[in-house]
Amino acid sequence: MNLQIALNALRTLLFPLRANCMGCGAATGCREDWICPACRQALTEGWVGASPPPEGIDAAAFAYVYHGAAVGLVSRLKYGGVYRLAGFMGGDMARAYRFIHPTGADCVTCVPMHPKRLTRRGYNHAALLARELAARVDLPFVELLERVRDTPQQAKLEDDARRSNMSGAFRGLEAARGRRVLLVDDVCTTGSTATACARALRAAGAGAVCLVCYAKARG
Ligand SMILES: [Zn+2]
User: How many Å lie between the centroid of ligand 1 and the Cα of residue 26?
Assistant: First the structure.
């Protein structure tokens, strides 16, 4: 167990999971739920469903606009070590996937994290979401991609830099040959990460590639 995982476990013990809203951090109103009624309402209003796919992707669906409560949820899953949020968020991603279900994926995979970053952070939040989604849509989760280049965090880059940042960052694994893939990530901003993953999957012999993310940046 590395230090990050140990600290996260300690934080979970000290601060019970549902004492605060996982969307806005408010201290009241969400004992029975992960989020408070106001965040629930905001998420409902930000529902997306099927959406025009990024380049190289056959179909795409997103649960929510990346705004307000959705930002809080992604952040607490990604940096706060609240692993169990993946189940809550994966349920909404499964609902979004049903809008593109006819694309007929036969497995679920996720945007991989570079091994160095994985060691530092202790877990890949996209893999947690992908496993939860896979279980809900009755498809196997399979690792089909590896990150061959550690890239600066996308969140810190401008659009053009995001695209060049991602080029050549991924390699498709042998297991991708002949698969129809449902690719999962937390947030889609320009789509450049998904496009680079799709290119790597196809180079490894995959057929269709569709995409489900928890949230989509306004664009
Ligand atoms: Zn809230």
Answer: 6
State residue 156's pLDDT score.
Answer: 64
Residue 48 CA to ligand 1 center (angstroms) comes to 19
Distance 30 CA to ligand 1 centre (A): 8
pLDDT digits (tens, 9 = 90+) for 179-206: 999 999 999 999 999 999 999 999 999 9
CA of 33 to the centre of ligand 1 (A): 10
Which residues face 212 on adjacent strands?
61, 184
What is the Cα–Cα distance from 180 to 137, expressed in whole angstroms? 14
How far is ligand 1, taken at its centre, from the CA of residue 34, in Å?
Answer: 9
Q: How far is the CA of 19 from the centre of ligand 1 (A)?
A: 11
Nearest residue to 50 via CA among 115, 111, 108, 99: 99
Encode burial over 125-144: b for 16+ CB neighbours within 10 A, e otherwise. bbbbbbbbbbebbebebbeb
- Looking at the chain, the whole-number percentage of residues with pLDDT higher than 70 is 85
The terminus-to-terminus CA distance of the chain in angstroms comes to 39
- Ligand 1: centre distance to CA 71 (Å): 11
Domains of the chain by range and CATH? 3-216 (3.40.50.2020)
Please write the tens of the pLDDT for every residue from 134-172: 999 999 999 999 999 887 666 666 766 766 778 789 999
Q: Residue 13 C-alpha to ligand 1 middle, in angstroms?
A: 21
